[in-house]
Amino acid sequence: MKILTPKPFYFDNGTSAILLLHSFSGTPNDMRLLGRFLERHNYSVYAPMFAGHGTSEPLDILQQGSPEKWWQQTQAAVQFLKDQQKTKVYVFGLSLGAIFATKALESIPEVVAGGVFGSPLYTHGYKGIKNAFLTYAKKVYSIQQNLTEVETDNKLRLVDSKIDAKLMEIRKTSNLVVENLAEIKRPYFIGQGTSDKLVDPKAASQVARDVKTSQLHLYNAGHVLTINQAHNQVASDVLNFLENN
């Protein structure tokens, strides 16, 4: 089975632009449904690809990516949309992307509003994220690389040996973002699945209490709200949020 390499996308269809940031084991593909929906409603949409992502080697995320690089990419993406002469820039992020979308709202004046889906902010244990990444890595190795069972096990052991340090880096960045939540004065959308197994669903309410401008939306769904059974309602809610902000 050959899987096409994911790529960033940019849909240029309006003076207001939405930046969509993907998750730790995801790619811009997870944001494409939402992106196309917003494009049809006359928004420009940009979904960059975080460093280390979109390859057939999960280790690339752990070895080539870092919170510092991903934040630099977020800043560069906002600048790209400004260079495209967009009059308004919004930023939304899924899971890992939620950290940087929130940081953008805390620190980039040009971002007028934004929000998060399945945010890890205030989630204290990353066990669910680690297990999901290991499952993802095993799937990638079984589908995209012609490895023996022994070779796959060796690869997975290497991933397992490196992932804790990377998750610790992410957690430190997340904690710094949490410390500044009260600084957000712009409209902030929070989308959270009530059956999310990767982050603590109750943490969304804590974030909502800290961000006085927030709108909390709960969905009877799991983690990846942009593509799971909640995606149509999520898209509709995001559009309504944009139209009113």
Automatic annotation (TrEMBL):
One Gene Ontology MF term: carboxylic ester hydrolase activity
Positions annotated as active site in the UniProt record: 95, 196, 223
Highest taxon of the lineage: Bacteria
One Pfam family matching this protein: Hydrolase_4
Any GO CC annotation of this UniProt entry: membrane
InterPro entries given in the database record: AB_hydrolase_fold, AB_hydrolase_sf, Esterase_lipase, Hydrolase_4
Residue ranges constituting the Serine aminopeptidase S33 domain according to the UniProt record: 17-221
Sites annotated Important for substrate specificity: 143
PANTHER family: HYDROLASE, PUTATIVE (AFU_ORTHOLOGUE AFUA_2G14860)-RELATED, MONOACYLGLYCEROL LIPASE
Name used for this protein in its record: Carboxylesterase
